[in-house]
Amino acid sequence: MAKKIRFGLVGAGWMGKSHASAFRNAALVFRSRLPEIELRAVADVNLESARTLALANGCSRWTTDYNEIINDPEIDVVDITTPNDTHFVIARAAIAAGKHIYCEKPLTLDSRESQILTDEANAAGLITLVGFNYLMNPAQSLARHLIQSGEIGEVISFRGIRDGDAAVDPLAPFSWRHDRKIAGSGALGDTGTHALSMAQMLVGDIDSVFGFTKTFIKERPVSVAGSGYSSRADLTRMRAVENDDTTLCMLTFKNGAVGSMSCSRVATGRRAWLTYEIQGTKGGLFFTQQRMNELQFYRHSDPPSERGYKTIYIGPEHGIYSAFHPIPGMQIGYNDLKIIEVHELLTAIEKNMPAFPDFEFANKIAKVVDAILLSAEEGRWTALDELHAPSTVRE
Ligand SMILES: NC(=O)c1ccc[n+]([C@@H]2O[C@H](COP(=O)([O-])OP(=O)(O)OC[C@H]3O[C@@H](n4cnc5c(N)ncnc54)[C@H](O)[C@@H]3O)[C@@H](O)[C@H]2O)c1
Predict the structure, then answer these.
(1) Phi, psi of 242, rounded to the nearest 5 degrees
(2) How many CB atoms within 10 Å of residue 47?
(3) What's the pLDDT at 387?
């Protein structure tokens, strides 16, 4: 077993809290299967947020300057949970300092930046992992196994949805998620990327896209305090929303399958609806995050009188679930996916092998997003191969 692994956390908001808790709980859930873990420092532009999160996690160093983490020779892993526009600059500095990186999705604002990070991290031989946490669900490992072992035949169609209602209220404040310079795209980059990550992992590389975006709530009250979903509004001042509330797209895959993906942050009644249906020549799969401990499986070879989707309940037979519970039916939740993510990262560092999903994977998703946005702008099918890189890359 390797030495202790020390990490520095940049960002003490919603995801910062989730990551810090995942590092602590991974040590409990996986016990001797992981190296010892230590949180060395927390950085946040809001000093009080950094202080509170550090102290809650037994850490005695906090700062407003992430460079203190990058430049600390004792730190092995830089964990980035800040808004999207900061990922490129922080990750690039971390790569230059020889740190392994755990970064929230979307990896960057566009695929030109994600390509640079991927190339530089690979050249430096660093382990990277991006927070497409829903892929960590043992239900998705089972889905992948069923597809790869031919149980549903040749995959011919993928339909993915990532709907949420977090922005349904028109008086919910304008936060960094509505600011194109900070977030990039809206629902597409924020949550649509999760549905695209399912398509990428389960069906394969996407070849071309036809996208369509729309902003329904054109302006929102400015935020006067807090960050992200914790922002507080000044109802007397409004600001124009700069990115999509909803994106729809059609997809073709390199292996011949076809598909669609839609995402929305103004989907009334859908709280966090990450759903897919995959149809193959011999069967199908259906999943929804609202019932994340179940996978629906259809086999066309069943006698016609018995055909229908059956529900598989995830349990200790399904790999990493057994680290949480020795018996089926106890369920795992969102934060457990983050614990599995940390296990994946630390195991990869320990064995010096690539983690999944790494920068390479996130770079593919960034290209799909760029192609969808270009397609929506130009109103035509767009092949990923023809992507022209965005004009500027930040230094
Ligand atoms: N994987 C998932 O399921 C998931 C869920 C939510 C958010 N995210 C991603 O996580 C990231 C953070 O989202 P969030 O909801 O936690 O945001 P948040 O607004 O709750 O927290 C962001 C924190 O970063 C701090 N910050 C901003 N700029 C900084 C800088 N330059 N240096 C240090 N700190 C800085 C803010 O003060 C804030 O505390 C985003 O990239 C988002 O897309 C992923």
Answers:
(1) -110, 0
(2) 13
(3) 87
Q: How far is the CA of 9 from the centre of ligand 1 (A)?
A: 11
- Residue 210 has which token pair? 């036809």
Any atom of ligand 1 within 6 Å of the Cβ of 228: yes
Residue 195: closest CA among 114, 112, 278: 278
Q: Which of 81, 102, 175 is the best mutation target for the ligand 1 pocket, counting ligand atoms within 8 Å of the beta carbon and taking the most? A: 81
pTM of the model: 0.96
3-class DSSP assignment, residue 261: strand
Rounded-to-10 torsion of CA 275, 344, 319, 202: 40
Query: Sign (positive/negative) of CA torsion 332, 317, 342, 132?
Result: negative
Helix residue spans in 11-167 (DSSP H): 14-30, 47-56, 67-70, 84-96, 111-123, 138-148
Ligand 1 centroid vs 206 CA: distance in angstroms?
Answer: 28
Q: Residues 322-335: pLDDT tens digits?
A: 999 999 989 999 99
Q: Which of 10, 14, 194 to mutate to test the pocket of ligand 1 (most atoms within 8 A of CB)?
A: 14
19 lines ligand 1 (CB under 6 A): no
Alpha-carbon gap, residue 244 to 263, rounded angstroms = 10
Q: Residues 337, 357: contact at Cβ < 8 Å?
A: no
Decide: 110 in ligand 1 pocket, CB within 6 A.
Answer: no
pLDDT score for 178:
97
Q: What is the pLDDT of residues 73-132, one digit of tens each?
A: 999 999 999 999 999 999 999 999 999 999 999 999 999 999 999 999 999 999 999 999
